[in-house]
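Case 222 in the screening queue. Each case pairs one protein sequence with one candidate compound; here the compound is adenosine-5'-diphosphate. For every case the pipeline is the same: read the inputs, emit a complex structure as tokens, and attach any notable structural observations.

Predict complex for case 222.
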Amino acid sequence: MSAVIAMRGVGLTYPGPPPVAALHPVDLTVEQGQYVTVVGPSGSGKSTFLNVAGLLDRPTEGVFELDDIDVGGLRERERTALRGARIGFVFQSFHLLAFRTATENVALAQLYSGVPRAVRLAAARAALERVGLAHRADALPATMSGGERQRVAIARALVHRPSLLLCDEPTGNLDTTTAHAVLELLDNLHSDGMTLIVITHDPNVAIRGQRTVTIRDGHLYE
Ligand code: ADP
Ligand code: MG
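Case 222 output:
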């Protein structure tokens, strides 16, 4: 098995002032196909960890390899390209455009990728099918349930076939019933071989992972 994420002594201190040591040096390896959940109280550093793992924030110390690529040596443009190619993000709020259909919302993810529009739309429809929403392809977000909107957001995160899916409180805005469909979907993606890191404060979500890590006061425990 090969590692999707390999962190050695990776930490992040926000410069401030005053400086905030949001993530103390972490050693963590996530193998391809693993489903990892990350728990911890509010303000403990979970989002900071996810932002580092997702190449949104640069760690201030340590060595971080994504798919065996040492990202510390990359220029900003290379990091952005790697992020765009390898990582899918899902957030608590779905960030869908209100006046675009589900298909258009998903297709917009590849807008600047040079992929022709017809190909983008076909890929978007395939991704919607993957999340069980083929029948809602032409629906606007306002007409969808929260769970359906989040599944559209997951389709958008999957459309460019990332090697890693990072989810920050993916069920945080959902009721139990609609959350269930999203969790089932994440289970299915895992079964299909996707590598998943899911941040949650909900114990019912945390137990879905094969592996749960805890972050407390910026320290990561396994
Ligand atoms: P969580 O997601 O677990 O709620 P965060 O990762 O968002 O926690 O935050 C961890 C700590 O880092 C908190 O103390 C927070 O106030 C601080 N923090 C987060 N972002 C910044 C930032 N951009 N600048 C300074 N401090 C920050
Ligand atoms: Mg957070």
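Case 222 observations:
- The mean pLDDT is 94.
- The domain at 3-221 is CATH 3.40.50.300 (Rossmann fold).
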